[in-house]
Amino acid sequence: MVRVKICSVQEPEHAVASAEAGADYIGLIFVHGRRRKVTVETAQTIGSAISGDKALRTVGIFADQTLDEVSDTVCAAGMGLAQLCSGESLDYCNNLRNRTGVEVIRVFHVPDGLDYDPAALEEWAATMDEFRAAGHLITLDRMVDGLQGGTGQSFDWTIAAELSRQGREFLLAGGLTPDNVAAAVSSARPWGVDVSSGVETGGVKDPDKIRAFIQNARSV
């Protein structure tokens, strides 16, 4: 069964709605300057609201932040995983896991045109394999200049499908919505899917869209 991560949660009620709909993960943004950034105190409140659901895990989202800051935030906010969105090194990921004991998700941004160059795709995927071999999870998102994640834009799913065919596991992100997630899962065969703006109405998480997204993701 495909896993589902609802990202950029800011309110306890949206965390509860995600839990009730059957999400596996919720993401909380700690990246400086991002509109959906939450405080440690808010993260603790959200964690308390879903403490009865042992299946739902919280993921702290970080980018371009020091190892000390990320480690301190993960521990203070009670995160179950940490997602790194800005090219953090393998040593960084290993050190973060060793310091905090949490699983690490490393985001890989897929550049345009990668599917036209098999050698470039293999070289790019080999780097991804180094992180997987070290026990880290992988998210594939679209590369957009100036953005570290949460692009709201999809990339060519044939790239993800080829990586999946080769036996590589990943969460698929970028431009997913309740309307296209079934097609994305059918095409790319990801281990999980990751959504933020695709389950929002007017920039706010929409419980109906969250339910529809999870139902459609698992209908394949």
Task: Give a brief description.
With 220 residues, the protein is of the alpha/beta class. Helix content is 39%, strand content 20%. It has one domain: TIM Barrel.
Count of the separate structural domains:
1
Strand tally is 10
* Widest sheet, order of strands: 1-2-3-4-5-6-7-8
Q: Quote the CATH topology.
A: TIM Barrel
CATH class: Alpha Beta
Q: What is the beta-strand fraction?
A: 15-25%
Distance between the termini: 9 Å
How large is the radius of gyration? Answer: 16 Å
> Mind telling me which CATH architecture this is?
Alpha-Beta Barrel
SSE succession = EHEHEHEHEHEHEHEEEH
Q: What is the overall shape?
A: globular
Counting helices, strands and paired strands, the structural category is alpha/beta
What is the H level of CATH, i.e. the homologous superfamily? Aldolase class I
Q: Mean pLDDT, nearest integer?
A: 92
Number of helices: 8
Query: Strand count, sense and closure of the main sheet?
Result: 8 strands, parallel, barrel
Low-confidence stretches: none
- Helix percentage range: 25-40%
Can you offer a commentary on this structure?
Helix 3 (67-77) runs parallel beside helix 4 (90-100). The protein is an alpha/beta fold and 220 residues long. It has one domain: Aldolase class I (TIM Barrel). The protein has helices at residues 12-21, 40-49, 67-77, 90-100, 118-133, 157-165, 181-188, 207-217; strands at residues 3-6, 25-29, 57-62, 81-84, 103-110, 137-142, 171-173, 192-195, 200-201, 204-205. The model has no long low-confidence stretch (mean pLDDT 92). It is globular and about 45 Å long.
